[in-house]
Amino acid sequence: MALLDRAIVRVLPAVPRPVVRRLSRRYIAGPDLAQACRVVTTLNEQGKMATIDVLGEEITRREEATALLDEYEDVFETIEREGLDSNVSVKLTGLGLKLDHDFCRDNVATLVADAAGRNNFVRIDMEDSSTTGETLEIYRDLCGRGLDNVGVVLQAYMKRTLADIGALAELHPNVRVCKGIYVEPPSVAYQEFETVRINFVEAVEALFDAGAYVAVATHDDWVIGEVLTLIEERGLEPHEYEFQMLLGVRPELGDELVREGHRLRIYVPFGRQWYEYSLRRLQENPKIAGYIALDTLKRLRP
Fold this sequence. Notes:
By secondary structure, the chain is α/β, with parallel strands linked by helices. It has helices spanning about 1-10, 15-25, 35-45, 60-80, 100-115, 130-145, 160-170, 195-210, 220-235, 250-260, 275-285, 285-300; strands at about 50-55, 85-90, 120-125, 150-155, 175-180, 215, 240-245, 265-270. Strands 1-2-3-4-5-6-7-8 form an eight-stranded parallel beta barrel, surrounded by seven helices. α4 links the parallel β1 (about 50-55) and β2. The protein is globular.
């Protein structure tokens, strides 16, 4: 299967954009905010929350970062006006992290302050390992300013994650835990599937022990089962944690979690860079490419 996944990824750049758009339609809301809002409205009607992500990262000019910041502020205004149950997720490289640390920190602080005024929340995404230290530093800085409507992401395949949880424990942080999709060397990231799964559950357990609010971002049945056991053992109420999933991925599993009374948030990306995002994400994680291909074939069957 791994060979098939990589083969699919190799031919992706040669696939016409309309075909890629059809393949990605279930996983990306579309190129504009109006389409994202329609998706979020439908999710809310299904009892699910959302987090909106404006596609755009690895920018090269300050003007691009400022423009993306303006887009996010428009997103918050629209969420408030439309009465949507959604927060936002941001990537720091899109707000200038690779250009200037202080410039990026100030951009994020502006966005978090705007969200606070609207009783909303900002999730700082985690990117590749070259950004981990600075991302956590900026998160700590924002918490130190008394901003409590901001959270961060930790990746289960990173060898440093349990140590990072220990360092953040005093903050009682708000953390999304995910497996991680970036291609990383064995020196910094676990490569074995089972090891990553086990580290995921240990990370969630450590965060619960630290009094953190944990967003469990996974489509893995085994991980979900283990986390549900932790929740039951601690007697946690639904408002003390949430599950998160990607738009269009295993919606039946998400429906089951909602029926069982758990909070579920769906990641809803949108933006003009949908094509670049699709290719990059599939190239970074060939398993996703294989999953999408098989899923699409199933849907095309009569």
